[in-house]
Amino acid sequence: MGALKLILASLSLLLVMAGSSFAAVESRKIDEISNFNWEDLMARLDLYAVQLQNVPASSGYIIVYDGRHSRRGEVQGWMNCIKNYIVERRGMDSNRIMIVNGGYRENRTVEMWLGPTADSPPKATPTVKLRDVKFRRGRLRKKNWGSLCNI
Questions:
Q1: Domain of 52?
Q2: In a domain, 22, yes or no
Q3: What predicted TM-score, i.e. pTM, was given to this entire model?
Q4: Burial class of residue 113 in the structure, from the number of CB atoms within 10 Å of its CB (0-12 exposed, 13-18 middle, 19+ buried)
Q5: Burial group, residue 74, by CB count within 10 angstroms (0-12, 13-18, 19+)
Q6: How does pLDDT run across 81-135, given as a tens digit for each residue?
Q7: Total number of domains constituting the chain
Q8: Which residue among 52, 67, 76, 139 is least crowded, i.e. fewest CB within 10 A of its CB?
Q9: In a 3-state reduction of DSSP, which class is residue 113?
């Protein structure tokens, strides 16, 4: 009887460990693009959207980093362009896509991630501190965000 309890306890422990390893699936980076123009970014977003569509239980995480030399408000403009393109032109459910401001890097950069729905978004990895950013003259206002992506 003691051996049977030991075997059942061992099996239970194995099942718990196996279940926790399946639940610990992490997000993975699908693509990254720097110093892009809108046409290059659209092509990459098209490929990314196909991967998202092929894994219906997944969520998309897009991290947008502003460059060391940019205009104030530019990162929000790019985030808006990306969201509109993925949802309106590629037909993705807006609840499956999370787009976040990642801070600053040497060059404007977009990272595209794929992860499980319940997972928290991947961590942003900025490489330039705000105090080291040299903003170009002018501000990109909300009404002009579409000028970045010709919408």
A1: 27-128
A2: no
A3: 0.80
A4: buried
A5: buried
A6: 999 999 999 999 999 999 999 999 999 999 999 998 756 679 999 999 999 999 9
A7: 1
A8: 139
A9: strand
